[in-house]
Amino acid sequence: MSEGWVVGARHAGFRFSTGLLGILAVWSLGVSGVRAETVDLELVFAADGSGSIDDDELRLQRDGYAAALSDPKVLNAIASGSHGRIAVAYVEWGSPASQHTIVDWRVIAGADDARAFGEALRAAPRAAWGYNSISEAIAYSADLIRGNAFDSDRKVIDVSGDGPQIGGRPLDLIRDMVVAEGVTINALVVANRGVRSGPRGEPLDEHYRNDVIGGIGAFVVVADDERGFTQTLLGKMIREIVDANPTGAPARRLAERTGR
DSSP of 85-141, one letter per residue? Predict the structure, then answer.
C-alpha cells in the first residue's frame, strides 16, 4: 500500500468526519433552537396506583383530580398567573418497577383544556402494580420534568399515597437529588383506607413530612375520607398554583440570587 493512498484515505476520513460533525452540529442547533413554551408552573401529579388501591378507589382518586382541575377556583388561580397557563402530567406508581404516565404533558389554560385532561384521565386503563416505591415515583416524575418542552420558574411534583416507602432506591437520596435540581415535592396523604404508618411506626403524615417532601414551600396535607379527598385536593392544587415563589432547594436558590 502506497504512502499516498494512506494519506489520501486519511484526508477522506477527515472530510467524512468533519462533514458528519457539521451535520450533527446543524441538527443540534435545530433542536436547541426550538423555543420552549413558557408556563407559570410545571406540575406532575404522582398518584398512588399500588396494590393497596382497588379499582373503585382508583376511579374515585382519578375523578377527584379531574374534578379539582376543572373547578372554577382552580381555573381562576391558573388565569391569575403571569402567563395564564400551567403544564400538567399525571403519573400512577406502584412497585420499584411500576411507574406509568397516565396522561402526558398538557397545557391547561382554561376550562376546555381542564375538561379534556379529565376525560383522558378517566378513560385511561389501569397500569400500576405492586407496592409502594415513593422514591421511584419521584425519580420518574423528575425525568418527566427534565424531558418536557416547557420552561417555568416553578416545578412541582405532587405525590399522593396511602402507604409508606417500601422498595426502590433510598427515598432521602432521590428526594434530595430532585430538590437540588429546582423541584419542590409536596404530598397528599390519603388516610381513609385503614390505619397506615411509616417505616418506623410513626404516623403516615409524619413519614411524608420527614422523608418525602422537600424544597421551597413544600407541604403535606391529609385527606380523611372521600369528600375530604376531593376538597383537600382542591385546596392543595390552588395553593400550588398561586404560589409565586421559585421552587427548589433553599441553598440552591440562595446561590442563584447571590451568584455564589
Answer: -EEEEEEEE-STT-EEEEEEEEEE-SHHHHHHHHHHHHHSPP---SS--HHHHHHHH
Q: How far apart are the first and last CA of the chain?
A: 59
176: domain CATH number? 3.40.50.410
Q: What residue type is 226 in one-letter code?
A: E
pLDDT at 31 over 80: no
Instruction: Give the residue among 185, 161, 156, 180 at the shortest CA–CA distance from 43.
Output: 156
Residue that the C-alpha cell 441538527 belongs to: 27
70 with 53, same domain: the answer is yes
What is the residue type of 260?
Answer: R
pLDDT digits (tens, 9 = 90+) for 85-94: 999 999 999 9
Angle formed by the axes of helices 72-79 and 55-70, nearest 10°? 50
Q: Looking at the whole model, is its pTM more than 0.85?
A: no
The reply to whether 73 and 23 lie within a common domain is no
